[in-house]
Amino acid sequence: MTALRCLVVDDQPATLDQLARMLRAQPSVARVNTTAGSTGALRMLHDMDVDVAFIEARMPGMDGVELAWLLKRFRAAPAVVFVTRHAAHAAEAFDVGAVDYLSKPPPEHRLTETLRRVVAVRHAERIAPPAVPPAPDNDEVIPVVLGGTTKLVWLSTVRWVEARGDYARLHTADGSHLIRARLAALADCWQAAGLVRIHRSYLVQLGYITAVREAENGQLTVVVGGRQLPVARRMAPALRDQLLDAGRSPVDR
Q1: What is the pLDDT of residue 46?
Q2: Integer CA distances (angstroms), 107 to 18, 33, 84, in order
């Protein structure tokens, strides 16, 4: 396998630079990019592939554990290593499938061992047969944990998404699934797949909307899977345009 392409994500400039220098000194590393937060990491990963992301677990805004859950849904998902002083996040780190969990700053020998593990994991992924069939354009597989078992859910089967604080509930024809992700981050990632923001608490898959209703006071609701969901007034014009573009009747009165 070729040398590793690394991304370091940390909101503290000093520790960000320190870990980047340590990684560049490792012979198994080909490239190191850095970014000061989760939002920057998502932007960078839309434009380039990396083999492993070294992430601080606790950051303002979208924290590192939440970022790791989002990265698992990328087609070319990087391996994840947490590098943090916050040991309380260790259990969450391994729930999300992290390759390793390092203290900050990591001893050089531990960093070398972590990179060895990453190389082994990436090599196994390349030679193993795919666990699921390739996703069609703009689709992806979402791993959800239910009763200790990981289930794979196609994004295209998600009818609507409901905000639950730091979590989101995905509603499909066969039930609902809770994942650790904020709605704003999902809205950015999943817009190209047809999931649109209609309210601060809801994303809706346009293809599953069966009716749009307008009350006498002008309030819009959409019907998805027999469920009525509210449309925020400021988001109603954009929704009308999107439905018209899709060739659907925009409003039932």
Answers
A1: 78
A2: 12, 20, 13
Of the listed ranges 58-67, 97-106, 111-120, 147-156, the one predicted with least confidence: 147-156
Give ∠ CA 75-189-180 in degrees, rounded to 5: 90
Q: List, in sequence order, every residue forming a beta bridge with 81; answer none if it has no partner.
A: 54, 100
pLDDT one-digit tens code per residue, 34-43: 999 888 898 8
Average pLDDT over residues 169-194: 88
HEC profile for the chain?
Answer: CCCEEEEEECCCHHHHHHHHHHHHCCCCEEEEEEECCHHHHHHHHHHCCCCEEEECCCCCCCCHHHHHHHHCCCCCCCEEEEECCCHHHHHHHHHCCCCEEECCCCCHHHHHHHHHHHHHHHHHHHHCCCCCCCCCCCCCEEEEEECCEEEEEEHHHCCEEEEECCEEEEEECCEEEEECCCHHHHHHHHHHHCEEEEECCEEEEHHHEEEEEECCCCCEEEEECCEEEEECHHHHHHHHHHHHHCCCCCCEC
- Position 133 scores a pLDDT of 41
Rounding to the nearest 10 degrees, give the CA dihedral for residues 13, 80, 29, 109. Answer: 80
Model pTM? 0.55
Measured between its terminal Cα atoms, the distance across the chain in Å is: 60
